[in-house]
Amino acid sequence: MQRIARRSGTMDDRIAFLREFLRNPRQVASIIPSSRFLERRIVELAGVRSARTLVDLGAGTGGTTRAILGAMSPRAKLLGIEINQRFCQWLGRIEDPRLIAHCGSAHELQGTLALYGLPAPDVVISGIPFSTIDRATGLRILETIAAVLAPGGRFLAYQLSRQVEHLSRPLFGPAQVAVELRNIPPLRLYRWEKPAARVAPTGRSRRPDSTVARQTSTMRPS
Ligand SMILES: C[S@@+](CC[C@H](N)C(=O)[O-])C[C@H]1O[C@@H](n2cnc3c(N)ncnc32)[C@H](O)[C@@H]1O
To answer: I need a surface site. Which of 34, 72, 77, 96 has the fewest CB within 10 A?
Structure first.
């Protein structure tokens, strides 16, 4: 029991996940939450420790959310977004003043950041299943991420399928790819970094990251 809890959430998380998967397999896309191994890779590859504003898209029962909070700076803020009402209740139980738990869809990210007065995120992490949600919604979510991410920010997607890379390539360019074999099932992690803002001759940044940026640009693997 303890071994299972360390690998993929508590038994309660696992039951909730399976139940919601059976209700809506295309949206939940996994029968169990991410393992601690995957959570650790996410935190490392996204550069959570140095980030000030982070977003966890498709937070589920909050396993990834807790792992991010565990590594985050005391001054950072995390916006957790989840579309499933029952999972939102789980997220709402996490008591941490750095977390804003929001029940809604990832494609509304730009408005949601504005709603909470958050600046452009320097990290966006996504477990949203781009291969099973409809293509138009997936593209909208990716375009929104590309638009809101701060210059120099990281986008990390952990996925079973390669669809996210296919959809993202025109927006973000090629990805840096890692695989976490110790997760069930083994998953790929795709990472992109948005180019840092160019400095104008006056010495002032042309794209201040104190507001949510609207520009979409090709990002680079790093
Ligand atoms: C594979 S699960 C990942 C859950 C959790 N982050 C983890 O790793 O254990 C994908 C999650 O994305 C959520 N989801 C799917 N489409 C979404 C959308 N458009 N907006 C927000 N969340 C979404 C699902 O409800 C589900 O909780």
So the answer is: 96
